[in-house]
Amino acid sequence: MNIFDYIKLEDIVNFTQRLVQTPSESGQEKAVAQVIAREMKRLAFDEVQVDALNNVIGRLKGDGTGPSLLLNGHIDHAEPGAMPEPYSGKIMDGSRFGVPEPVLYGRGAVDMKGAIACMVYAAAAMKKAGMKLKGDVIVAGNPFEEESAAQGVLYMLDHDNVKADYAICGEATNLNVYVGHRGNAEVKITVKGRMSHASNPGRGVNAVVKGAELITYLLQHYRLPKHDLLGDCTVTILDFVTHTTRKAPVVPDCCEIYVDRRFLPGETQEQILQEFRALIKQAQTQISDLDAEPELTKWGIAFYTPPEELIVQKLRVARRKVMGEGGELAAWVFGTDGAFVADRGIPTVGFGPGDEYFAHTPEDHLPISHLEIATKVYAQTILEVCG
Ligand SMILES: [Zn+2]
């Protein structure tokens, strides 16, 4: 028998439904971690562990003569907002989402409970088929991804003795092969002015007006790096905060601008801050009395796994065997936990069911066929790497 004969779509659909029906916003992952742990035990994983933060980790033991593979993703989800029946996990006609097949609907379906279910069932197929593996297979569900970047996956890497030679991050890629993503820096620029009576603005320096001019200048003059696979870097104004209490009519003397700057691997915090300082200096030649100072307030790392890396090659071989072609290489638009795994020296590739475009939207859903295809590609990749 072929390994694919041990993969039954209805089991995966059923498990994904149970995951969606178990709400798990960040910090409330205990119940869903238990659902996953129970399923792993039922499917005869060699070891199943849930740690203090509700990382859930299942292992298949290899004989130690080959490379090991980590398949992981997060088990929390964005808040449902105004989404109707967010925890129904119901199967419905996909045409309302522009999908010509049935879909599984519910909060976290595409981001990313479907992928977790596929990973669990790909590993389970090895057990059912009685495969002897050379390297270990580790399937992990991580909490705390949506609200606090990477807290869960970092805790797992530091405390749970999870060591792997390669990793697959299962965030939605629409069944394409992703090789990383840009990083995100958040920079706060404090703009200072000078207070004066509003009846006599010429005596003061209006920080709000200077801030607005600086925003326009930044957007027009920031020259950003480009990357063939990861995409072009971007700069986005996140917020413009004033502190005026306006009890008396005064010219405001302070404001803050928050900027999101997407960056490429290799760019450093100091480089990016230096760019902001240089742009402000340049702006001062055109905006009189501009006094502004940038500081870094958030940093989410970038990652890039080159196409020639073994895990990318193996995944493409597996994809070709399942889908007929290795697939184009691309990258996520947003950040993932995969960056933190890659940062620990574990080459990481991205592959997952569903379209990332629907993550965090009220149209959160997953085409049913993706569940079967993704499980097969994961299973075949396990064989290519650990078999
Ligand atoms: Zn996600």
Termini distance? 16 Å
* Bound ligands: zinc ion
Contiguous low-pLDDT stretches (5 residues minimum) are: none
**Could you please say which CATH topology of the largest domain applies here?**
Aminopeptidase
Total number of helices: 9
CATH superfamily of the largest domain: Zn peptidases
What pattern of helices and strands is seen along the backbone?
A: HHEEEEEHEHEEEHEEHEEHEHEEH
Class of the largest domain in CATH?
Alpha Beta
Q: Evaluate the radius of gyration.
A: 24 Å
Our count of domains comes out at 2
> What does the overall shape look like?
elongated
Walk me through this protein's architecture.
- The protein is an alpha/beta fold and 387 residues long.
- The protein has two domains: 3-181 and 302-386, Aminopeptidase (3-Layer(aba) Sandwich); 183-300, Alpha-Beta Plaits (2-Layer Sandwich).
- Helices cover 32% and strands 22% of the residues.
- The chain contains nine helices and 16 strands.
- The longest helix has 21 residues, at 109-129.
- The model has no long low-confidence stretch (mean pLDDT 96).
